[in-house]
Amino acid sequence: MTVARKFSLYLSLTVVGVIMVGPLYWLFASSLKPSADIYSFPPAWWPTSFEWHNYVDAWRSAPFGDFYLNSIITTVAGTALEVTNAVLTAYAFVFLRFPFKRVLFGILLAALMVPGHVVLLPNYLTVSELGWINTYQGIVIPGAASAFGAFLLRQHMLTLPDEIIDAARVDGAGHLRRLFSVVLPLSKPMVITVTIVSMVGKWNDFVWPLIVTNTNSMRTLPVGLLLLKNAEGYVNWGAVMAATVFVVLPVLVVFFIAQRQIVAGLTQGAVKG
Questions:
Q1: Could you read off the pLDDT tens digit of each residue along the chain, which spans 273 residues?
Q2: Taking Cα atoms as reference points, which of 227, 198, 193, 186 lies closest to residue 210?
Q3: By three-state DSSP, how is residue 45 classified?
Q4: CB 173 within 8 A of CB 147
Q5: Three-class DSSP category at 234
Q6: Coil, strand, or helix at residue 156?
Q7: What letter does residue 194 receive in the DSSP assignment?
Q8: Residue of 250, 232, 228, 227 lying closest to 240 (CA atoms)
Q9: What is the dihedral sign for C-alpha 227, 228, 234, 237?
Q10: Run of H or E including 203
Q11: What is the C-alpha to C-alpha distance for residues 136 and 163, in angstroms, rounded to an integer?
Q12: HEC profile for 7-30?
């Protein structure tokens, strides 16, 4: 690689990095700015004074303790259900024989193409009939399955060595033992990837919790952030930015901890039909 080409590559990566990191920097910097800095033009890229009380104001202006608890409960329960369903579905499509297998897999692929908002009304009517409005199960159950996660794990399981699976079968291992003793250990990076993708999606989910809850005691963080922003007469954008940090920070921490597993899961092995 020539020097000019290497320079252009690093320059391109730097520009992309700035574009990606810039909004995060602006978020964290604005959460510490006084109101005058936020409204100033040209923009103030560094706070003239660090207003740490923005975080206190944000926390006290809405029940963020309840929002955090609700987000943790719905995210953990929803992710556990979604990943479990994805693992079992993927295993069935790869290692089991049953009627209409190809047809059902085609339906799974078709489900990937259906926008999530299409099922909002049917899900809401179903949850309402079950009496689950403003409940944890009403938030969690409609999202307990993921066509994307099942498809991703299925494609990965197709790459597992047949010899290892056959050896476990010869040793008398049943399907559950093969799943937990052989398939899952070999699929760990991909399972972690699917788990994190599911977790981030549920943590950031806004539309469904907004529709299916009607009291602050059941709101999740993204919905609580909107309530804080739309509070009548509330113009403290520093506190709004601080509240946004409350929502974003846990996801960033999880990503930085698990980024190697994510990359390994997305790049592990080649896909065979």
A1: 677 788 888 888 888 888 888 888 888 888 888 878 887 778 778 888 888 888 888 888 888 889 999 999 999 999 999 999 999 999 999 888 889 988 999 998 888 888 878 888 899 999 999 999 999 999 999 988 888 899 989 988 888 887 888 888 888 778 888 888 888 898 888 898 899 889 989 999 999 999 999 888 899 999 988 877 776 455 678 888 888 888 888 888 887 777 776 666 666 544 444
A2: 227
A3: coil
A4: no
A5: coil
A6: helix
A7: H
A8: 228
A9: negative
A10: helix 188-204
A11: 44
A12: HHHHHHHHHHHHHHHHHHHHHHHH
- The pair of structure tokens assigned to 250 is 């846990």
Q: How far apart are CA 269 and CA 262, in angstroms?
A: 14
Q: Which two tokens stand for residue 194?
A: 């699917």
Query: Euclidean distance between the first and final Cα of the chain, in Å?
Result: 36
Side chain identity, residue 57: D
Token digits for 39?
């409204």
Contact 70, 205 (CB under 8 A): no
Burial zone of 192 (CB within 10 Å; 0-12 exposed, 13-18 middle, 19+ buried): middle
| Amino acid identity, position 5 | R
3-state class (DSSP) for residue 107:
helix
